[in-house]
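User: Second chain of the day. Same drill as before.
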Amino acid sequence: MDTVLFNFHDLVLILTAFECLLFALLLSVTNQKRVLSTAFFVGFLICHIFIPIHELTFWGKQFRIWLLDISPNLFFLGSYAYFLDGPLLYLFVRSLLYKDFKLRRVHLLHALPVALYFFHMLISFYLQSYERREMLVETQHIAYSAPYLYFDAAGRFLRVIYALLCLKLVFTYGEQLKNVFANLNKRDLAWLKVMLVSFLGLFSWDAVLLTLKLYGYATDNFDLDLLNIVGLSGYYLTFFMLNLLIGLKFTLFTSVAAINESSHPPPNPESLPVENKAYIEDIKASMVRTKVYTQPDITIDQLATTLKLPTKRLSQIIKEDFRANFYEFINSYRIEDAKQQLRDPACANKTITEIYYEVGFNSKSVFNTFFKRKEGCTPSQYRSKNSSSNNPPEADKSIL
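Assistant: Same format as last time:
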């Protein structure tokens, strides 16, 4: 009864698994609408229940010996999670950003690495004699031998690739937003980028550990002290990153404006009919007459309804005939309206803040940036140049 099963490092692993278990249960219970992205996130958390359990069972000094007395078959069950958390993170991000995402048969390809790993383990471990399995676990020889080492490394490097794919998804989504929304500041995904970069760092740290093992295998000289330092550091990094992810999930994930994955103009505009000039002029006239661009949260679907056009057709027209995306198209009208007010003596008493809110902007920085890009000067400078008094209102000076 005096045997100590866990040391401090083991407790970090236990806490990691326990936290993931609690939040997975909480999300499962509260996911009444059966949101697909939440289901993937729960799966990701479940993986991070099994990963620390695997580390604890295989590398824990006393706990490993105690568990080995029960059965060697209890080992490596959590190792499969290394092949699953990357795909689940990727599917989570994709289903979070795109409301038309659906699981298809092609997504089964994400399970191919874990299937190959299971086949390898079946031959090299589970079908071996009981004594052989017991020896492989007790000596930990299997962790430093091929082909297990190659599979282990492949799993860690795959996680890095999936993290990079997640970041690519986020940046692609950011560009697609410009074809759907006129204001983007409320849809800033900096928090998601930070989270994914953090996990990229964590996965890369694990990949470094396996690179050191591969180097040790190639040179027949494993630096066990270095491997121990890198491995233990990974435990603490995982604990910190998972707490960061959990905090972000419950505070910011609901702010994502999901769009259709195909929210962009057709890839081959040359094959589509070109609108005649009269029709384009009708669109321009309608924009000026209705001033629909002054709606702060106008979307391309809403504009298409106002103009009585199919959304995809409008997206094509904006790209081909106006040489812009929806974000640039709407904001160009806002800038022209703002310029007119800045020149108008009747609006001399209006502050620039009042003007940019009136034309549809909801961010001073976005307005200033867009204005300066189009006119080469700030709104205050533009008003000063075009004002009969050449002296903008005092209130404006405090804004820009």
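The CA atoms of residues 125 and 132 lie 8 Å apart.

User: Great, on to the next one.
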